[in-house]
Each structure stands twice: as C-alpha cells, then as structure tokens.
# Entry
Amino acid sequence: MRGDQLSLAVHLPQPCDLESFVAAPDLQAIAQLRANESAYLHGPAGVGKTHLLLAACRLHGGRYLPLSSLLGEPAEILAGLAIDQPLAVDELEGAPEQPEFWMALLRMLDQRGFGNGVTWVASRNAPDALHRLPADLRTRLARLPRFHVPALDELQQFQLLIEGAERRGLALPDDVTRWWLRHLPRDAGSLLAGLERIDRAALKARRRLTLPFVQAVLMPPAAAPQDEPQDD
# Structure
C-alpha cells in the first residue's frame, strides 16, 4: 500500500481549532501553524500537541498521520504522500521500530523539504533527545522550526474547563470545577477527555452538571472524594 492509498480514520470528539487552544499568550507555535509553515512541536504528554496538529489540518486541509497506527504496515506506506498537501506526523515515539521504516520516513521528509511541502511533527522530546532514531533522521527533524509546548498552569487549566464546557453548551458550577482540579489529572488531554465524557453522560441522562453527577461519571462512586457539599 502506498501513501496515496493510505486512509486513516481519526475520531474527533470535538472539532479542534487553533482559537480554542488554551496556551500561554506568547506560544509562537500557534502563529506558525496558522501561517501554514512547517513546525516541530515537543512537550510532555497531554499538553495538546495532537490538538494543535489536528487544528492545523482542519484549517489548511492537511492529512493527519499518527505513526503508532502504522505498526505492522510496510515501510512503503509512506511513499507517495502528496507534497502539496500539508502533513501532520504525530506520535513519533510510537513509530515502528524498524530501520527500513526510519529510512522511509527520512526519505519522505527529504522529499517534502526539497519540494517545499509543509510538514508538522509532534513528539515528547526535541530531535536531539530522540536517541533511538538514526542520526540522519534526527538531523533532518532538527531542521524544522522548533517550538516547545509547555504544560498548563492552574489558571489555564481552569480556563480550559470553563471554555470547553461553554463550547459544549454546558454550565460547569464552581464547586465542580474546584473538585475536578483538586482530585483528577489536570493535563490538557485528561481535562478534554473528561469534558467529552460528562457531555455524553449529561446528554444521555438529560441532567444538569452537579457535583454528585460529575463524580459518578468521572470516578467510581466509592472512590469519589466527599469533601464538598453534595446537594443535587
């Protein structure tokens, strides 16, 4: 199978766009992606790198390629990807551990570089820290403009929850927000996944968001902390 035959189904529970990404005001990666320029994004898991890639694809008609989805596929699958279409390469750490795959990825990046193709890459680490990759591939990745995506601070976590709930038509009470940020994982990926879960649950149950309801959805009832008033 060649790249022009590659078809990846990516489930987007909520449309991703650059405007909805919660980040520090000086995050230059957003301006780079909005301008349809190549970029290498790196930062810890859960900070929103995938959100940025998907948002850029949505904005510019790009193709999203999570490398973990290629496990078991032949290296030739990377051949033939159109240079004139922006390409987002995600999950670099999850790529197949095969020398021929790394060489195919290097050839693809070289072709896109020589042909002025727009390429966005996301990884947890900067290129020089990816020691499992061949040196030539690390060097090629290092040529891309590099942007660090930091973890959210407490104010940004609060902002993500409130704005994410509003976009879904949900009213998130203060006691729910305080409990959520005190007792559950607070990385961007976990917060967005939690919002998606309570959105589906509230729609199905036709319930407003109260603390007992959100606790029941996001945590087993026996494990949910009881340090907030629970009036329904």
Notes: The beta strands are 39-42, 63-66, 87-90, 119-123, 146-148. The chain has two domains: 3-148, 154-218.
